[in-house]
Amino acid sequence: MTDMFQFFGNEILLDSSVMHERLVADAARQGLLDVAYHTVDTPLGPLLLAATEQGLVKVAFDRQDHDAVLAELAAAISPRILRAPARLDPVARQLEEYFTGRRQAFDVPLDLRLARGFRRAVLDHLAEIAYGRTESYAQVAAAAGSPKAVRAVGTACALNPVPVVLPCHRVVRSDGSYGQYAGGPEAKRALLTLEAA
Amino acid sequence: MIVKPFEQVVTEHGPMVLRVCRAVLGPADAEDAWSETFLAALKAYPELPADANVQAWLVTIAHRKAVDVTRAQARGPIPVEEVPDRPGGAAAWNGDLWDALARLPDKQRIAVAYHYLAGLPYREIAEITGGTVEAARRAAADGVKSLRAVYPLEGAHS
Questions:
Q1: What is the complex's ipTM, to 2 decimals?
Q2: Which of B34, B42, B58, B94 to mutate against chain A (most A CBs within 10 Å)?
């Protein structure tokens, strides 16, 4: 019985990418595409990019497990999540320019709803640390309004929802060593080396 | 709460829904019905209970879309001439089987599609189509019997 019916599945998905694109376009038009995502290849490995209608909401490194990150977004924002590269085109293009040394600042709308309170204050300050510069965790704590919250700055950086675009990699230890990074210490070293060139 | 991203639902069940749409509506309307089914599913997805049978839920939506399409067109038999007719063994055999499926009476075609292509138990099929479990079982059995009469050489494709 199975033999006879498995043939109904053959060659039927030839247009599946076209059909998927149409679903994405219809969903976006009807305001049902709550989270769009795309994966881009970078010198740091594949990066997951996700955006709501407001803006870029998540950037995740490969070691963070993209499936797990998408499940978190589904729980935290909405399960109406589709692979939809178009919404991520601007940031994908800017990332490529950044990694090839042709861009120093990102200009895309951000949706920072995943970070609140002090963590949000830290993110707001990150945007002010210029390309090629670094600040210590203590400096960032002071700038974010809580000079004693040095450890909390470390947490805020570790949980930065949009790394690379908001440059938590520019926050280093007071002794000049790199410190932790969501993308791994090698990724942080690579970014700071790129920006020092 | 549902935490599975909808993209995963499309990946896991997209092919099944397309087979069902094609079996019930024929190739000409299958892709439209597929798109409308997943768009409607996306809309309702956040309210879907965590323990819901996603497969049955999607077939239920697809069934409503198919009924809509059929009513809107109020047409006769599915235009079998639009079945892709490519040369070559498996593809041609496959097209012929679609053709035979398309010629089945509606109830039989739907029961065969939902049971054998979507993998739903007759209890679910009866809920979707509004008949009895026994009627769904009989319709599928009659449908398969007709298909077998046309294609007694099951397995000859390989």
A1: 0.90
A2: B42
Return d(Cα A7, Cα A5) in angstroms, integer: 5
Identify the residue with better confidence: A160 or B67: A160
Q: In terms of Cα–Cα distance, which of A77, A23, A74 is closest to B4?
A: A74
- Active-site option among A57, A91, A144, A168: A168
Residues in chain B with CB shorter than 8 Å from the CB of A32 are 39, 42-43
Distance between CA atoms of residues A24 and A27, nearest Å: 5
SS3 A175: coil
Cβ–Cβ under 8 Å, residues A48 and A169: no
Using alpha carbons, select from B146, B153, B24 the residue that is nearest to residue B89.
Answer: B153
User: Quick one: closest CA in B to A24, which residue?
Assistant: B39
Furthest C-alpha separation in chain B: 49
DSSP for A104-152 reads SS----B--TT--HHHHHHHHHHTTS-TT--EEHHHHHHHTT-TT-HHH
A3: enclosing H helix or E strand: helix A2-6
Is the pLDDT reported for residue B87 higher than 70?
Answer: no
Element (H, E) at A154: helix A150-158
For the entire predicted model, the pTM comes to 0.86
**Among candidates A118, A135, A120, A129, which has minimal Cα distance to A164?**
A129
Judge whether B8 and A84 are in contact, CB under 8 Å: no
